[in-house]
Write a structure and sequence with these properties.
Elements (H helix, E strand, L loop, with lengths): L1 E3 L10 E6 L2 E5 L12 H4 L6 E5 L4 E5 L3 E6 L2 E6 L1 H6 L5 E6 L4 E6 L4 E4 L6 E5 L4 H13 L3 E3 L4 E3 L7 E3 L1 H9 L15 E7 L2 E10 L2 E8 L5 E5 L3 H10 L10 H5 L5 H20 L1 H6 L1 H13 L7 E6 L21 E7 L8 E6 L13 E5 L1 H5 L15 E5 L8 H10 L1 H11 L7 E2 L14 E7 L17 E7 L2 E7 L2
Antiparallel strand pairs: 1-2, 2-3, 4-5, 5-6, 6-7, 8-9, 9-10, 10-11, 12-13, 13-14, 15-16, 16-17, 17-18, 19-20, 19-23, 20-21, 21-22, 24-25, 25-26, 26-27
Helix pairs in contact: 11-12
């Protein structure tokens, strides 16, 4: 069996495939694991999921950080315990199972702790202790080696120079002495019900599941906090009432309505304005269009082709100087050196209007740390003012128009993860109709590389400098990879990432 995977530009798709009868069979995906939301840029770590076969449970188990899942039949059942993330680390772990005792241990190599895995009562049972003089060398082996479970799972071997092994027999015996583990799964609760309806252009959700005290019903606009209440009654009966009110499964939602979920509000407003301008132009040319039906057909085809991107437009300036800054406002680094001006963009009213100017480190280090660069807001008055002359010895490239397009349909991973965690079917629909984030130069939408940016930050633009000719004046700036400009709660940020 295999679990996880990347496919068609979608990472962490959490597929489950089993090899049966000489062919792969796909099992239901189930709820998206919450542990997939962790990223190194936002949380400082990734979660290494580990699969193993538990002989005591008679099932395959998936060990995460906040969750442990058990494959019960053809469905994953998720177990959550606040002690999980307190007891073990999210990565650099080995899961060792001993068929003789029926015990399972999670060995965390960063600090040597060993945890007994029990779905009912996990507990720390031992630790690997290194003599002080050998700790640095041993830690290097433990964090970098490939860990292999050998010799009936009682020895952990390390295929590195100076191979050594750790005998876990005593730890398995200690774990077994603590009492029996949970080996009989409690009865599974009825599957939650996930329903939706498109009402007056807004997609509403109706979620229900069985909890202590009755049925928990949550309803409201998709992607926002849902109103919640626990009511008495039967889950199936309550779902039947909701269906009578027009709610249905995710498959019943139209693709056109779902596409709006991946769009920032300002993008939708800009599209409506553009559509109104096109409609006005069509009205003015109505007589001419009647005389040429073939032109009508061609125009319709062009509209159908614009499913993913708006027409390119001049959105700002690359090179030259920033508009309306005074000499004292020109950003400088910690050593007092003036930064080099890279680009500026005009912002729609929904993002506060005015614009943003981006500056980069002048000494070729702009791609090393985001803090070496600056992105500052320009007011409407500054944006309308003449360009500011750069300080002496600052590289200045000839100004040229910055022409970018906006993605029309795009779902960022954060949104897909949020909705997919509630309803796997809805997550799959979103991925199918627009889940691949556009990696090309653009304004708005979602970043092609999600490890960039702060949680909740809105992408202003992304620009690939590997794919464009760098002016001679910027040769020493070290421009490489893609620059991302974000609007954050504190203002703006800019940083590079390799492609």
């Amino acid at each position: 069996m295999v679990w996880g995977g990347d496919a068609d530009g979608r990472e962490n798709v959490h597929d489950t495939l089993v090899w049966l009868g000489g062919a792969w069979r796909e099992l239901p995906r189930g709820p998206r694991p919450r542990d997939l939301r962790f990223s190194h840029s936002s949380h400082g770590f990734w979660v290494d999921h580990v699969l193993y076969f538990d002989t005591a449970l008679g099932r395959i188990v998936r060990v995460g950080f906040e969750e442990v899942a058990v494959l019960d039949g053809d469905r994953w059942r998720v177990f959550k315990d606040a002690r999980f993330q307190d007891l073990w680390l999210p990565s650099q772990r080995t899961v060792a199972h001993d068929p003789a005792s029926g015990e399972t241990l999670v060995v965390c190599w960063d600090d040597g702790r060993i945890v007994r895995l029990d779905l009912a009562a996990p507990d720390r049972v031992a630790a690997i202790v290194h003599p002080p003089r050998d700790r640095d060398e041993a830690q290097q082996y433990l964090t970098r080696a490939e860990h292999a479970v050998v010799d009936g799972t009682r020895l952990l071997g390390f295929p590195v120079a100076g191979t050594f092994a750790i005998d876990l027999a005593a730890v398995f015996a200690l774990a077994a002495s603590l009492g029996p583990r949970l080996t009989v799964l409690p009865p599974a609760a009825p599957d939650p019900v996930r329903l939706y309806r498109d009402r007056d252009g807004t997609i509403e959700a109706w979620f229900a599941d069985v909890v202590a005290g009755g049925v928990r019903v949550r309803r409201g606009r998709v992607g926002r906090a849902l109103e919640e209440e626990v009511v008495a009654g039967d889950l199936d009966a309550l779902a039947a009432v909701a269906r009578a009110e027009g709610f249905a499964e995710a498959e019943a939602l139209s693709d056109e309505r779902l596409k709006t979920l991946g769009r920032p509000v300002w993008s939708l407003k800009e599209e409506k304005k553009a559509k109104k301008r096109r409609d006005d132009e069509d009205d003015e040319d109505e007589d001419e269009e009647r005389d040429d039906e073939s032109d009508d057909d061609e125009s319709d085809d062009d509209d159908d082709d614009e499913l993913t991107r708006e027409a390119p437009a001049v959105v700002g300036r690359l090179g030259g100087g920033p508009s309306g800054l005074t000499a004292s406002e020109w950003p400088r680094d910690e050593d007092g050196r003036a930064l080099a001006f890279l680009l500026q963009l005009a912002l729609p009213a929904e993002l506060g209007g005015g614009g943003v100017a981006v500056f980069v480190a002048p000494d070729g280090t702009c791609t090393e740390e985001d803090d070496y660069n600056r992105a500052i807001r320009l007011t409407d008055a500054q944006l309308a003012a003449p360009p500011t002359k750069a300080p002496k010895k600052v590289a200045v490239a000839p100004p040229r128009n910055l022409v970018l397009a906006s993605p029309r349909v795009e779902f960022g991973r954060e949104l897909v993860e949020q909705l997919g965690a509630e309803d796997a079917a809805l997550g799959e629909r979103l991925e199918a109709i627009g889940g691949v984030v556009d990696p090309t130069d653009k304004v708005g939408g979602f970043p092609a590389y999600v490890q960039m940016g702060e949680p909740g930050a809105a992408l202003v633009c992304q620009l690939d400098f590997d794919g464009r000719r760098t002016p001679d004046a910027w040769e020493d700036l070290g421009l490489a990879g893609v620059i991302y400009v974000f609007r954050t709660a504190d203002g703006f940020s800019a940083g590079f990432q390799g492609t």
